[in-house]
Structures are given as C-alpha cells and as structure tokens.
Amino acid sequence: MSTIDGLPPLREVIATHGLSAKKSLGQNFLLDLNLTAKIARQAGELTGCDVLEIGPGPGGLTRGLLAEGARKVLAVEKDPRCLPALQEIAAAYGGRLEVLQGDALAIDPLVHLVPPIKIAANLPYNVGTELLVRWLTPPTWPPFWETLTLMFQREVAERIVARPGSKAYGRLAVLAQWRAEVRIAMQLPPDAFTPPPKVSSAVVHLAALPAPRFEADAAVLSRVVAVAFNQRRKMLRASLRGLAPDIEERLKAVGIPPTERAEQVELEAFCALARAVAAP
Predict the structure, then answer these.
(1) Is the full-model pTM beyond 0.90?
(2) Of 171, 174, 234, 272, which residue has the fewest beta carbons closer than 10 angstroms?
(3) pLDDT tens for residues 123-178?
(4) How far apart are CA 11 and CA 165, in angstroms?
(5) Strand, coil or helix: what is 152?
(6) CA 205: distance to chain centroid?
(7) Structural domains for the chain
C-alpha cells in the first residue's frame, strides 16, 4: 500500500525532508502503511477518541490512526526535522492532528486531550520503558487513558506479559498486570523497519482495569517489587531485609516462604506482601 490518504508514500516523505533515522533519538521508522494501519487497528475502535502518539517520526502510524477514524491525534515529536512532514499530514486531515515539538517525558499532554483517550505509539527505544511505568503508576486510578497500544523491543514486550516462574517475569509484569489486561498483539521482524534494528519488535496492548486486581498501595507495591527483583537471585528474606527488620515474619504471615525468590511470587502474593510491609 503506497498511500491510504492521497499523501505521498513514506519513503518519498523521508527523502523529501531528509529524515534519516537518528540512533541518538532511538528512531527506527516503519514505512509500510499496511503495517502502520494494522497497528492502528490493534488500538480498537478509535472513532470518538483522542489518541496520544509519542515519537511519530515521518507519520506512518499517525496516518494509520487518522485513517482508522481517531477524533484527534496529539503527536509529540522531539525531532524538529519531522515537523514539516507532520504538518503536511495535519493539513490533509482537516485539523484532526495536533503536533507538539518536545520531550515526551517533559510534556503534559492532558491539556491538549479530551476523554476518552487512548495511547498508541511506536515508542523510541530509549524512553519506552520509562513512559510505560509512568502511565502504569499515576497518582490516581483509573488513569487518563483507556488503552495503550505500544511497540517495544520483543524482549521488553515479553517482560510485560510474563508469568511467574519465567526468566522474563519481573517488575514490569507485576505493575502492568496489576492494573491492566495485557497481551502481545503483533510481532514484527527487524526488516520491517528502516534502518532495521538488531532485535525483533512486538506490539503490546494494555487495557486499563477499572480498579487494580488486588488491594495494595501503589507506591509500596512498586518499592517492594523493585527491591525484590533488583536482587532476583537472592532469597526474599535477604533481598527484602531493608524494607522491614522483621521481613521474614511478614513474608510468612502472607504465605510466602522466606526462601522463595522473586520470580516465583504471584501477583496476588506481592500485593499481600505490600499490605504487610505498609502495616505498622
């Protein structure tokens, strides 16, 4: 598919605007509009929704989101070289695309968006995990977003959906699965991108739950999980010793053997432990 909207093919856009991908910005561009439209469809029904996109680059996914009916797309792009190409898309879509130039880690998108809000992005590799953790740990829940449809390195995607007992299971899995339904929606080989990265990629879809699966204080759970997995080869009675002097008794009280390692602990048990750690 060379075009979906009367705009030039992406290779032509890149050539016209001199948009060679920059490694320093974590850029790997998807040029196949078939693929970008397919990724946009993974976000579900977009009609009547505002969509936040981080790192649109030359606008392949942006065009897919707009073509799939998004009410509005707010695209946050750090690279000023991409702005002329994105403005061409904005002109073609009658004001449904707003472009902000800046760092996604420093911009508050909520002043530009109206609920319901979805997030869809081929995230720059160097900020993807940090953005995901921010979206999963807001001050209040439910969050401002309904769903996240995000491209990651496949290794990161597997960590988000990992189950206890696997090597991939860790902090990301606990934080994501505590508050969202998660699944890998698509996998993409390196040659789908320009330039091809050294690793495969995957699209993860997360749908926010109305409330967390189990009761726990978010800050305490996050701290418990971070400490537990920071020394994942140690027994919990050793790795968590700094959280409470009587951590062994607290572990036993919630049914976790003190000799267990973090990767064996189920989500529900971590939440129970967070409640025990928070107790006087």
Answers:
(1) yes
(2) 234
(3) 887 889 999 999 999 999 999 999 999 999 999 999 999 999 999 999 999 999 99
(4) 44
(5) strand
(6) 8
(7) 10-208 (3.40.50.150), 218-278 (1.10.8.100)
